Amino acid sequence: MSLRASASPTAPADPYVLAADAIELPPATLATALGRIGPGMVLAASIVGSGELIATTTLGAQVGYAVLWIILLSCAIKPVVQGEFGRYTIATGHTALEGFNRVPGPRAGVGWLVWVWMLTVTLTLLQVGGMYGGVAQVLHLLVPSVPVNAWVGVCFLITLALLLGGGYERIERFAIVKVGLFTVLTVCAAAILLRRPDAVTLADLQSGLSFELPAAGLATAIAVFGITGVGATELVMYPYWCVEKGYARFVGERDGTAAWAGRARGWIRVMHLDITCSLVIYTMATVAFYLLGAGVLNRMGLVPAERDTIIVLSNIYTQTLGAWALWLFYLGAVVTLYGTVFASTAAHARLFADAVRIAGWYPREDADSRRRWRNRFVVALSVVPVMFYWFLRSPVQMVVAGGVAQALMLPLIGGAVIYLRHTQLPDEIRPTIGTTVLLWISSAVMLGFASYYVWSRI
After folding, report:
1. How much is the pTM?
2. DSSP per residue over 124-183, as a string?
3. Whole-angstrom Cα distance, residue 225 to residue 159?
4. C-alpha dihedral, 131 to 135 to 138 to 140, nearest 10°
5. pLDDT at 85
6. pLDDT tens per residue, range 381-416
7. Cα–chain-centroid distance for residue 414?
8. Main-chain dihedrals φ then ψ at residue 191, nearest 5 degrees
9. Which of 58, 110, 310, 444 could hold 114 in an S-S bridge, CB 3.0 to 4.6 Å?
């Protein structure tokens, strides 16, 4: 498989093809390195969405503060797997699905794990449908004369207009705006809640660290673990955003020289900085949503349901910031939920187009074919979740179902990354023993949650 190709002078460089003229030294200072982050912001745009606004807040409404530990654990352990998946891509130039395709096991055109990933994404389109529904419910509250289903159709058309033919830079800019807006507002609301003596006590927070799973809300708890922090689908997305940002191209093909190893380690450090910045953002947002669900909705006896999801959730703002904040919540909910639709559709279209390439339908160097397949999947991955919502019409249940599917996929991803770390990485850029131990621990925890859910359902 050739990794080199020449582009026309006017064509943008193809980030999926490693070329000598694209090699670039990594930034030498923290300030310049901060200017080169971005994939984590795109990922945060996917993360701070249905999982946080709907599933996490609903879990807090159902069980109070009891499972705060799940939120913290979910956010803390997955970046280890994320970082090692990114390391593999930067060092080899291989995409995430190419890595899956190298995992031993049955094959049918592509490896078994690629097929499992495709099945998981199909199920998580229920989440995307739930987000379409959440956005449509807000817009219907603002313009009641337009039915919810019609608003879903409008959002669908906007998605096609924004994503067809759109490149990485457009997605990154949208992600930064989206992440900044609602995260700041929600963290402020949670901070106000924490200052109210009647809302959150030290005993409440201590009860949330008791490491117990609730009998009530178990499915939601497992779903929250699956989609808060870096969910299964985001773990697979992240290496693609690293490729599109240019990290792998900047390193270049491995040539066995010390210069190559230095570039690889340098750009991997930039990736780790990118992961850390996004970790801080989505952890703050996730914890804030959970505290608001537990401290506001649970005390009010309200749990979001099929047709009143947004109305119930709006209390997390109006009961902390005041009635005037209702419009802020509506704006934030639209930006948050739609931003996740936008980012996840953009990523999944790229991954499915890559799966077609891995199956042998076009060569790596054929950027035009990749772009055509990506646009086809933009359409398909927009149509399916819209149809899901039109038939199911329950954002909470749709998000929970998608979250459970992600939770069950997590240990498979952890196992694949362990395999790639021990068999595919060049020796000169392998992680430390400590990082490797953390990778095994993280994968074991993800396996434990998935196994517990399966066992509880037998």
Report:
1. 0.82
2. HHHHHHHHHHHHHHHHHHHSTTS-HHHHHHHHHHHHHHHHTT--HHHHHHHHHHHHHHHH
3. 28
4. -120
5. 94
6. 888 888 877 776 665 566 666 667 777 888 999 999
7. 16
8. -65, -40
9. 110
